[in-house]
Amino acid sequence: MQEVNNSIFVAAHELKAPLALMRQLALALDPDNPVTTTEYQQKLISVSDRAMRQVNDLAKIARLEDGLFEMEPIAVRGLCEEVVGELKYLFRFNQKHLQIRYTNKDRLVVANRELLGSIIYNFCVNAIKYADQGSATKLAVTGSRERVRISVRDFGPALPKDIYDKLTGDSLTSPVGISFRPDSSGLGLYIATKFAKYMHADIGAIRHHDGTSFFVELPVSHQGTLFDA
Q1: DSSP at 60
Q2: I need a surface site. Which of 2, 25, 81, 132 has the fewest CB within 10 A?
């Protein structure tokens, strides 16, 4: 029961934060200052879009058992570019940028497009919080044998060992608060874990001395090259 209560608390806290920020931005709107009004309006749109996406992801978790999310060959590079396109404004607004590196030979993976897109999105949004202004977040797509790995590198505080062990041990079964990373999305990490498990993908992290790389690893699809991108 305690774990359930903690999970509800974490989820409520993370969903409340963007609402509080939107309220502050709305109160700060000054119709006599068109420059700041435009800036705050754009920020409001950005924050609301991310909040709605997180709520939609939570709704998808409740529907995973219905088997509505079909697996198919996905052009992983094209999907990454799509997600990065959605995040361009967020990077630009925070004066940060994203570096993408593709070294995977096999370009098709077996996945669900919606679920995989949400995992990449969550990793990138989380990494933005731990990049200095003018610095780059790194997204890499690599291949090894029958797998393709998509990883996002951030430069935040060390990932606590208990969270690292749960993530790599496939035992992250509820949203968690992450100590030393108060702005990190424990809810987003939980969502990514649930989506990865549904797709029979592996999810994990690599701890660096100056940050963490979160990754999802998926099986290669050998269904021709018609969908390659």
Answers
A1: H
A2: 2
Alpha-carbon distance of 20 to 27, in angstroms, equals 11
Extract the tokens encoding 107: 């370009």
Nearest-angstrom CA–CA distance, 174 and 4: 8
- Structure pTM? 0.80
Out of 8-17, 54-63, 143-152, 170-179, least confident range = 8-17
Buried-exposed string 40-79: b where 16+ CB fall within 10 A, e elsewhere? beebbebbeebbebbeebbebeeebeeeebebebbbbbeb
Alpha carbons within 13 angstroms on the beta-carbon side of residue 88 total: 5
Provide mean pLDDT across the span 175-187. 56
Mean pLDDT of 198-203: 93
- Residue 165 to residue 204: CA distance in whole angstroms: 9
